[in-house]
Design goal:
By secondary structure, this protein is an all-alpha fold. The chain is built from seven helices and no strands. It is rod-shaped and about 100 Å long.
Length: about 150
Amino acid sequence: MCPAVYPRLGGAVDELRVITEDFDRAALAGGLDRAAALGRFEASNDDFLAGRGSSMTATFQRYDNLSATLARIEGANAVERLQSLPAYLDTDIGQRTLENYRPAVPVTMEGILYAGGGFILGYLVLSGLWRFVSMPFKRRRYAAYR
């Protein structure tokens, strides 16, 4: 899996954990467990509260799915992670990762110019060094033909 996905997936799991734990603490303070608190949201005649209950249910499901995915990724070796990339890549997280992805090789004009300059400079230095090192051998060759 793309290394950039790990921090994003881990960050998403961490944030969803905070939301989940906060909801569970608020439910416990009210003398309820998570299921009972969600049941109150769903039983409400207020559309806003019922919608929040549905939203929180989806949040808890997403937290469970992403937590399980992160656990599978952390327990897998490099080949298994690469083979399972499409299954692990959450659409939202994957899309944001790809939007922010910057390749390791700079493909900007500035990067290309620096790479080209480095290549030319390296070529000149190595060819000059090669000529310097091979000079004694060339003199002997020329001396043998005289």
